[in-house]
Amino acid sequence: MAIELPDFDEFYGVANKIKDNELELENLKLNVEKLEKDIIIRAVGDETYYLNGKAPSMDFVRNTFKVTGFAGELIPLREKIIELDAEDGYLKRRYEILKLIVEVWRTESSNARSALSLS
User: For residue 47, how far is the Cα from the chain centroid?
Assistant: First the structure.
């Protein structure tokens, strides 16, 4: 069975996709952290969110508003983070597979040369 050497343009393409994906993922995480900060400040400072006349506890804020936002605005962002993280894992595995194919090709090529020299 002859192993074909992968197109090196594919290596570059996958590496660029990894870079772009990680950049988007980290920017999205940063945006979520900024929103979480704003949500915490608003939840403890705005009397609209007070419970029985008192600011909500940090535990309450962390387990409710910080997770979803006030109106669920963080949920799509968190879903996108999950999607980008999964894509990042896939791309990294794809890159590793391409590297393994090259290693198998090198071994097969070396074995073929050795066999020819013994003939």
Answer: 37
Residue 7, CA atoms < 13 Å, CB-side half-sphere: 4
Question: Which ranges constitute the DSSP H helices of the chain?
Answer: 8-45, 58-63, 65-68, 75-118
CB-hemisphere CA count at 13 Å for 40?
13
Q: Which pair of tokens denotes residue 94? A: 């794809």
Cα 104 from Cα 74, distance rounded (Å): 45
User: pTM value?
Assistant: 0.83
Q: Which amino acid would we find at residue 58?
A: M
Cβ atoms of 95 and 17 closer than 8 Å: no
How far from each other are the two terminal CA atoms of the chain, in whole angstroms? 20
pLDDT-derived band at 119, boundaries 50, 70, 90: low
pLDDT in tens, 3-60: 788 889 999 999 999 999 999 999 999 999 999 999 999 999 999 999 999 999 999 9
